[in-house]
Amino acid sequence: MIKKCLFPAAGYGTRFLPATKAIPKEMLPILTKPLLQYGVEEAESASLEHMVIVTGRGKRAIEDHFDISYELEHQIKGSSKEHYLTDIREMMGKCTFSYTRQTQMKGLGHAILCGEHIVGDEPFAVILADDLCDNEDGKSVLAQMTTLYEKYQCSIVAIEEVPQEDTNKYGVIAGEFIEDNLVRVNNMVEKPAPQDAPSNLAIIGRYILTPDIFEILKDTKPGKGGEIQITDALLEQAKQGKVLAYKFRGKRFDCGSVDGFVEATNYFYNK
């Protein structure tokens, strides 16, 4: 039912300067694989076939990664190194990749809105590649969420419990549990101070959104940080009882921070 996954990938990655001066942060590798490839593989594991990547200036490496490199492939053809490209070749064969640019950095909500003309009038997923997720039982976070969407047919956000003192780093939800690990959302606040947070249930970088979100985003005024926040748009849907929050099974790494990036590297190396 859901076939498209949108990847906002236009940010500057300033926490990783100077590395991200010329390299997109989404292309930083955990071991030998870029963060964005992990995200695309997760989307494909949930049977999504069309990857919509919202890029910006200086992000051509993303397009090049999901393309054939004739000279490189010719050089390693028949050698012991050829197998290193097996996974990415298979991914390119299974998926379609479309690209559009976010010409101004006006927030996550604006980045999602930039993909409207490709996504069209259908539900879609969103993955933030610097939230790297892993699941030991083999069912990815996004695959868990698409199963829920088939039942509830509304927007869904992935959540996890965070320390109360960290709520100012996340969108935070409140609501009523309707199933184990599933909340019907009645309030959402973007990056609240710990004393103002409605809970310690924080939204992480996995969303399923219904297409009416685009019209809501067009009417959403800039919020926290002067940016168009997806949290504010989702709150409008939540007021109609149309947003669920799911406490996913799995482990998540904040690879937008140096500490989280190192933790993820060590985790996947040991695994």
Tell me what you see in this structure.
- This protein has 271 residues and is α/β, with parallel strands linked by helices.
- It has one domain (4-270): Spore Coat Polysaccharide Biosynthesis Protein SpsA, Chain A (Alpha-Beta Complex).
- The protein is built from ten helices and 13 strands.
- The strands form three sheets. Strands 8-11-9-10-12 form a five-stranded mixed β-barrel.
- A hairpin with a 2-residue loop joins strand 9 and strand 10.
- It is globular, with a radius of gyration of 18 Å.
- 40% of the residues are buried.
- The model has no long low-confidence stretch (mean pLDDT 93).
Global Rg: 18 Å
Question: Could you list the spans in which at least 5 consecutive residues all have pLDDT below 50?
Answer: none
Order of helices and strands: EEEHEHHHEHHEEHEEEEHHEEH
Strand content: 25-35%
Structural class: alpha/beta
Strand line-up of the largest beta sheet: 8-11-9-10-12
